[in-house]
Amino acid sequence: MVTTRRDILKGAVAATTVASLGGRARSAHAQASRQIDGVLRQAVDAREVPGVVAIAATDRGVLYEGGAGARSFEAGAPAMTSDTVFRIASMTKAITSVAALQQVEAGKLKLDEPVPNIDPTLGSPQVLDGFDAGGAPKLRPARRPITLRHLLTHTAGFAYEQWNPDVARYAKTTGLPPRATGKLVTIRMPLVFDPGDRWLYGINTDWVGRLVESASGQPLDAYFRDRIFAPLGMKDSGFQPSPEQRGRQARLYSRQADGSLTLQPVETIPAAPEFWSGGGPLYSTPRDYLTFLQALLHGGAAHGVRLLKPETVAEMHKNATGATPCGVLKTENPAISNDVDLFPGATLRWGLAYMLNVNAGPNGRSAGTVSWGGLFNTYYWLDPARKVTGLIMTQILPFADTRVLNLYGRFESAVYETLKSA
Description:
single chain; 422 residues; alpha+beta; 8-stranded antiparallel beta sheet; 3-stranded mixed beta sheet; disordered N terminus
């Protein structure tokens, strides 16, 4: 079953977009939209995904909005819609990065100076230099201080256990609890290289969130609510969903070796975490997150609300890592993530919030497109050159699922085909 709603915001924006087209173009647009419906339906019918939602928009309004399948395989499960609640995981990072850049604009944080010494982990960083004969970690002081730019671009030296064997061993050796416990000790980790030496995806943005809290004087959940979510009308986004939002949540599945999907238990949310993670645990809906992307597409403003100055958003979309290769990860935990190489052979760099395609991508995106995703196979892209943004959401582990990535690529290709008729 496909549930398509191109009448987002009561149809006003989408209707304006389609109405601006000539008759032949409207027909081509409708045909392209049906093609995208078919792409989503085919993936559900093949049980590649239990359900999926996809939305795309240009600077003129919503181009496509649709869903296929249900929020779970269970009998009677509600259909996937644009107000389905998803765990967006690392799609949280772009929101945290915007919050930090708001504080840069306010003069309370600096991009290229040592970060405020709010914790010894940041103020006196230690580098993990292997393990001694008894298995104890060997640490040394970092050769240079950490800057906010390092943290935003994942060049500070922090890592995630699922993509670095040394930090995984460190966590096990020292008995660190899982980050899902919400305990601050879980991000008090050593670096695995000196700040600025290379790129490695890690807990950097958790520390960015802590810096936002310190600079603003607000807990991160309140800051997001007051400075981003409420102004943009993102009513279904937050760290702790209400019972009603839980009722709209899509269930998580894990991909088995034979390609089948196994339902996972409903996750437990800490009632009172020691810190709000800027790196991953937000809940949101496709409709809410599109609103956030539209603000960036419009140079930092949407619905009459400005989050950032246009020049700040332009800076976000520049290569911030120079010649340093980015974006490729080798898994240490196949149950959590596959190897990550979203564009094999492509030149990838990092901006101040997300991955950057230096050259045009295989599915239509322009050079300079930024994108990333979330652990549970949610993905987005934003193409400043073509002024188009899109997202696709399902709930599957491990990350970088081949079937979902293929679906993502087919959706993106169909969106750019639709642009040709617009």
